[in-house]
Amino acid sequence: MATDLSSASTEVTAKAKPAGANDTKASRREVKVPKGTRDFDPLQMAIREKVFGIVTGVFKRHGGVALDTPVFELKETLMGKYGEDSKLIYDLADQGGELSSLRYDLTVPFARYLATKKLTSMRRYHIAKVYRRDNPARGRYREFYQCDFDIAGQYESMVPDFEILKVLAEILDKLNIGDYEVKLNHRRLLDGMLELCGVPAEKFRTICSAIDKLDKLAWEDVRKEMVLDKGLTEDVADKIGSLVKMRGKPMELLDELMKEDSPFCGNAASQQALAELKQLFTFMDVGKCINRFVFDLSLARGLDYYTGVIFEAVFTGTVKMGSIAAGGRYDDLVGMFSGVQVPSVGMSLGIERVFAIMEGQAGQLTVRKTQTQVLVLGIGKSLWNVAIGIASELWELEIATEFRCVAPGKIKKQLSDASEKDGIPWVVLVGQDELNQGIVKLRDMAAKQEEEVRRDNLAADLQSRICACAALKGLTI
Amino acid sequence: MATDLSSASTEVTAKAKPAGANDTKASRREVKVPKGTRDFDPLQMAIREKVFGIVTGVFKRHGGVALDTPVFELKETLMGKYGEDSKLIYDLADQGGELSSLRYDLTVPFARYLATKKLTSMRRYHIAKVYRRDNPARGRYREFYQCDFDIAGQYESMVPDFEILKVLAEILDKLNIGDYEVKLNHRRLLDGMLELCGVPAEKFRTICSAIDKLDKLAWEDVRKEMVLDKGLTEDVADKIGSLVKMRGKPMELLDELMKEDSPFCGNAASQQALAELKQLFTFMDVGKCINRFVFDLSLARGLDYYTGVIFEAVFTGTVKMGSIAAGGRYDDLVGMFSGVQVPSVGMSLGIERVFAIMEGQAGQLTVRKTQTQVLVLGIGKSLWNVAIGIASELWELEIATEFRCVAPGKIKKQLSDASEKDGIPWVVLVGQDELNQGIVKLRDMAAKQEEEVRRDNLAADLQSRICACAALKGLTI
Prior knowledge:
2 copies of one chain form a homodimer.
Chain A: H1 42-61, E1 65-66, E2 72-74, H2 75-78, E3 100-102, H3 107-116, E4 122-131, E5 143-152, H4 159-175, E6 180-186, H5 187-197, H6 204-211, H7 219-229, H8 234-244, E7 247-248, H9 250-258, H10 268-286, E8 293-296, E9 309-315, E10 323-329, H11 333-338, E11 344-349, H12 351-361, E12 374-379, H13 384-396, E13 401-406, H14 411-421, E14 426-430, H15 432-436, E15 439-444, E16 449-454, H16 458-472
Parallel strand pairs in A: 1-4, 6-8, 12-13, 12-14
Antiparallel strand pairs in A: 2-3, 4-5, 5-11, 6-9, 7-8, 9-10, 10-11, 14-15, 15-16
Helix pairs in contact in A: 1-4, 1-12, 4-10, 5-10, 7-8, 9-10
Pfam families (chains A, B): HGTP_anticodon, tRNA-synt_His
Catalytic activity (chains A, B): tRNA(His) + L-histidine + ATP = L-histidyl-tRNA(His) + AMP + diphosphate + H(+)
GO biological process, one term (chains A, B): histidyl-tRNA aminoacylation
């Protein structure tokens, strides 16, 4: 789903702001990444891995299979899919041969994949970076992750739509980073509404784009755009204004809109959309996720390719930030490539904002950058070979091990680094005097205790200690 | 490390050849990926995940921390690093603002990262795609994975070099896809050799490029290039020819080259390199990996930035293919960005060739595309809600579940798909008659047996069955 998920501009993102933001102060000799991009350092990578683990877990538990596509597509593949946002597409230079562009989202490559392989059904997930030439000054990244889950194929009405929404709610629950709500609407209900208000059919998409700005602009500004820029009469704009204000609990608002005195009564497109929503809300009620959703007639979504249910998730708790996930049904996109219609529905999670929140909480987390269990210290040059021999025995047993060769005076520094910076639980101290007796010292870093262990039994000994420790902690090595 | 790791052109890669190879036959309306790129379908993704799991496991057990960098870098960051191969760099179009290029390898971005963050030591791994505008007609991918592990910082001589080689040997052993050997040489030994043979210093790098072609070209062709294109006398070329033929077990050849009657005797650069190699080979002997290595004076490596030990791994068994991994020491690269020298050594594994071999073996593997444990079938439209309710209970317990709503006549097809295509172990059949008695049917797909289970106890019942099953198999859900 193409959506505004690239931003991570909240109060918690000070650390993570894009390179280039300090350009004016930066010295000329500074070595930088391109504007709007960033490196992920080891602590951020540990958080990223954790988040992806949660997300992938939910995707897999819903029968999702993984897919990956090239980072760039033929330019013609991306053309005509993103409406006004197409100007943000990154092109590769013409170095002879085909014209290509970096992917703008993961939905169009998925549809292109189905068309390429002539597939008519698939339940796939894809976690990868996408690229948009947006304005880094507004806190937007130009390279950012999306986590997509889509169900393509012929199914009973609203069954896959329900499952996509269930997947989204499960992920946001499990990420456990704040209260959220998912706004939900239906493209054909929106079309029916515009028809009822007297908007000509050829202006539906551009008026949708205007309505879509209601989460950032006041109604007065949107009304101005409709009247001055897009040529609606004031009367028509005001009719739209009265309807897009409607929002509420899904079943309650739906019942109201289905009443005989509802403005939607008698409009065929709207009636079909309302009947579909009734089925969907029933499934969501049974699936115990409907309390996360708000039926909101102002939700429009800017993209051209949506054809049915549309939705967008936002945080509502102490952390205020824009859209964190979005998606909808797009029944005609695959057919734009292959001529064969493959009805599809999907969601896209903009994980940068989740990272931003988690990085803000990282002080409270105990995230280790390495998994190292044992540090072997060879004390003095003559003992390097012994330290390497011990480390090699431990690697053979698949025990995460580092070794250092240090001068006798530097042991203290190594021990404090191992304990404070790296959180390594065990240190083996290899000294000549002990070795002459066939032993080494083993230090338990948490207990701050040392004991002597036979050199020839060291690897087996450490293995059983580490296993016992892991068992105690429930296998979280 | 920049190296020729993009190719996967062996006898096992027929399935995986790049898009575009069939261009002449393809119809005009075909929807394609750009030339030299490819999609990874779910089966390939399952293999990829398995391979990355093995590789990451070894990296982490050696204290590696993860790093990720943007897929494109400022063009100036990549300039002057890749010698003659710079022509293969992909540029982004100039759409206003900075000029950027897709990364060509992971080594230069790592060095740039250290310079950007002013770090002087790091032990990092990075698994990501890199981009080269190579010729797809030669079976080369233009987008392919590299798995890099590098150790930057001041250490005792040859200690990190040993560990990089140990990591490489561990990975190739654990991948278990065929016999291999790692060719090893030293850039300063090579320089000493060229000096001894009478090559002028300004021609060292270009003569190295010629020597580097010896794994693909006969000596006669390389000699011709040296004499005709690069202006060496025949006498000098022949001296080089006699030396680059030398190869053998590391310690044995080293002892020979260190003898008093060796041609390298008295050449200072060579003597220092030989002393370093002696220390390295001692560590490798203690670390029990030296038997994987061959000391080979013809190994030159094309890139500009190597300054010490260099190496390259090739398969030697029934699977014959080119370089699968390569790397070396590059002490000056970080300083090219920051002015601060940060000695570094690293390896890069070209995983596409590993994928190609594993995909060739995939027939023998039992790789499931999904992890689905339970399929819930609601039989008839009136039971959809019940099926969705059951599935939601199972998701709540983190049991991987799919559900389908099917007409009574289509159960057989669903069961055979579940068993043969998807390998799902359990199917719940929800029918109205059973449900009236408070039960559903549970089918054990392996045993081909059905039993009746109480609806209100179903989720707990399935959970204990799946746990018992997982315990039996040693937790491989």
